[in-house]
Design a protein that fits this description.
The chain is mainly alpha-helical. 71% of the residues lie in helices and 0% in strands. It has ten helices and no strands. The longest helix has 34 residues.
């Protein structure tokens, strides 16, 4: 309902126009998405009670606070210019959506809402599940081929089997390679997980020397995440 309400509010004037133009609706929707994204950044970057700062004012503040990198700031500035100059031309509208999506992925992607090791673990499970399904399909096809012709599926090259089976074979090879790559990123994690607490500690105590003992002690299971921060601290420590 919230999405429907926003769409109706954004496009109400265009829907009531006798000369309805879908391009204007798409443009208005993109501008609405950008406005919500900008308001979220403004809420983070501008001082409490300040209602006059714009996105261009806040971006340098976020960079200084190390909330944004220089590359992310440049992407946001370029995206803002594209959104500002967008017309009803379909090419302009498509370009606007590309920049809005890119800006959101660039900024929000760094927040790491999910433990990267847990994410790889989930991807590995999905990959293994799909491999089992593909292997079961190929095994069933192999049995069917043996019953009909007495020939094993493995004895035939891809060009001598139905295209669907050839695609399944290629998919199995791709999944096997994907599984091998994901296996490399496996690491031990405690139960219950402490990743969210680690994020809070890292954000809160980044500039304090006392966080070293906490990182090395309680968060020893997350050494792959804490090691770069510890190394940077020790390199710059007095």
């Amino acid at each position: 309902m919230a999405t429907l309400r926003r769409l109706l509010w954004t496009n109400g004037a265009d829907l009531a126009d006798a000369r309805f133009c879908p391009r204007r609706c798409h443009r208005a929707l993109g501008l609405s998405c950008w406005q919500q994204f900008s308001e979220a950044l403004l809420a983070v970057g501008r001082p409490h009670g300040d209602v006059t700062s714009t996105l261009s004012d806040v971006i340098p503040v976020l960079v200084t606070a190390q909330c944004l990198s220089g590359e992310q700031a440049a992407w946001l500035a370029e995206s803002a210019a594209v959104v500002r100059d967008v017309t009803d031309d379909p090419v302009d509208i498509g370009r606007m959506f590309v920049y809005i999506g890119g800006a959101q992925m660039s900024v929000l992607g760094q927040l790491m809402a999910v433990d990267p090791v847990e994410e790889r673990k989930l991807l590995l499970e999905y990959s293994k599940d799909e491999m089992e399904d593909v292997e079961a399909d190929l095994a069933a096809a192999d049995l069917a081929m043996q019953l009909v012709s007495g020939v094993r599926l493995a004895a035939l090259a891809d060009q001598h089997v139905p295209p669907a089976l050839a695609q399944q074979r290629q998919r199995l090879l791709a999944l096997d390679a994907e599984r091998a790559e994901l296996d490399v990123g496996e690491a031990c994690r405690p139960t219950p997980p402490l990743y969210q607490q680690l994020k809070q500690l890292r954000a809160r105590l980044r500039s304090f020397s006392g966080f070293v003992a906490g990182l090395e002690g309680r968060y020893g299971w997350y050494r792959d995440l804490t090691a770069p921060l510890l190394a940077a601290y020790r390199q710059n420590a007095p």
